[in-house]
Amino acid sequence: MTIAIKPIDPVGRAFFAGEVSGVDLTRPLSEAEVAAVHDGMDQFGVLVFHDQDIDDAQQLVFSRALGPLETATGDIAALHERRVSMDLNDISNLDRNNKVVARDDRRRLFGLGNQLWHSDSSFKDVPAKYSILSARTIPPTGGNTEFADMRAAYDALDEATKREVHDLVCSHSQIFSRGILGFTDFTDEERVKWAPVRQRLVRRHPRTGRLSLYLSSHAGAIEGWPVPEARAFLRDLNEHATQRQFVYTHVWRPHDLVMWDNRVTMHRARRYDHTEARDLRRTTLTNEVSSLEQAP
C-alpha cells in the first residue's frame, strides 16, 4: 500500500489535521514513506494514524526516522521513578508499578498543566519540532486532545496586529505555566532547570514559508513590555488562536498515534476520570535550533 492522507474535516478545516492510511508503524518506514509523512506534516500540522499497536521500541524507530529526538527532561519524575526510558515522555496517570496515582500526587498535579494550551518544550532554549503520541490505554470517556492551528490564527489577525507581533520576543517557563494553576511546589534545582527562555512570538516555517503565532501557557512576558500589559495581550492572542474554527478535537481510540508540529500548533488535554488509567507515550523531535535563529 501507498501512504494516503485525507483531511479529517474537509469542509471546515481542509488543511488542518489529516488522517493517514496505508502505513504500518510496526515496521521501519522507507525513505519514500518518511518523505510522505514530512509532506503531510507540512500541509496538515497534525496527522492521525489509527490502529497502530506499537511498543516503545517501535515508536522510537519511527520517530528517529523523522529526525533527532530530544531527551525527556520536561517532567518532575525522578530517574528512579520513571516508567519509561528518557527517550520517551510518560503521558500517564500511572506510577512505576502501573497503579493509578492519588489525586493529590505531586506528579499528577504538575501534569495538570497539560490541560492548558501549550506548545511542547517551548520552555527549552531549543524547542520541540514534532511530538508523536501513542495511545496504549484510554479511559472510557474524556481525555480528548485539542489542537489549534496557529497558521490560520496568524492569517486571521488584522494587519496592524501582524505588524505589532512580528518582531516580539517572549519569555517561556514551566514555572510560570504551572503557577497559573497554583502549582508552586518546585525545588531550587527545578527553578534553575526551568528558568525562562526566549522565543519568538511569530515563526516562519522553514519548508512552507508560512507564518504562525508561537504561543503557549509557558509564555509569561514580552521583552520590553510591562508584565501586566504583556500578559493581557498574550491572553487576547490565546483567546483569538483557540476559537473553534481553528481547533481540531481528537477523540482517542486505543492504538491511535497522533503527531503534530509544535511550530505551527498549540494543544491541550481535556479532563477525564482521574481514577481511570490513561497511558500514552510521547516521543519528541527537537527543532535543532532556537526559534531566535529562524527569523520570520
Written description of the protein model:
There is one protein chain. The protein is 24% helix and 26% strand. The protein has 296 residues and is α+β, with helices and mostly antiparallel strands. It has one domain: Clavaminate synthase-like (Double-stranded beta-helix). The strands form four sheets. The protein has a seven-stranded mixed β-sheet with strand order 1-2-3-13-5-15-4, with helices on one face. Strands 12-6-14 form a three-stranded antiparallel β-sheet. It is globular, with a radius of gyration of 18 Å. The mean pLDDT is 95.
What gross morphology would you assign? globular
Number of domains: 1
| Biggest sheet record | 7 strands, mixed
Structural class: alpha+beta
Strand fraction band?
A: 25-35%
How many beta-strand elements? 15
**What is the CATH architecture term?**
4-Layer Sandwich
How would you summarize the topology of this molecule?
Layout: E1 4-9, E2 13-21, H1 31-44, E3 46-49, H2 56-66, E4 89-92, H3 106-111, E5 128-137, E6 145-149, H4 150-155, H5 159-165, E7 169-172, H6 174-180, H7 188-193, E8 197-200, E9 202-204, E10 211-213, E11 219-222, H8 227-241, E12 247-250, E13 257-261, E14 265-269, E15 279-286
Parallel strand pairs: 2-3
Antiparallel strand pairs: 1-2, 3-13, 4-15, 5-13, 5-15, 6-12, 6-14, 7-8, 7-11, 9-10
List keywords for this structure.
Double-stranded beta-helix, 26% strand, single chain, seven-stranded mixed beta sheet, 296 residues, 15 strands, alpha+beta, three-stranded antiparallel beta sheet
Summarize the structure.
The chain has 296 residues and is α+β, with helices and mostly antiparallel strands. It has one domain: Clavaminate synthase-like (Double-stranded beta-helix, 4-Layer Sandwich), CATH 3.60.130.10.
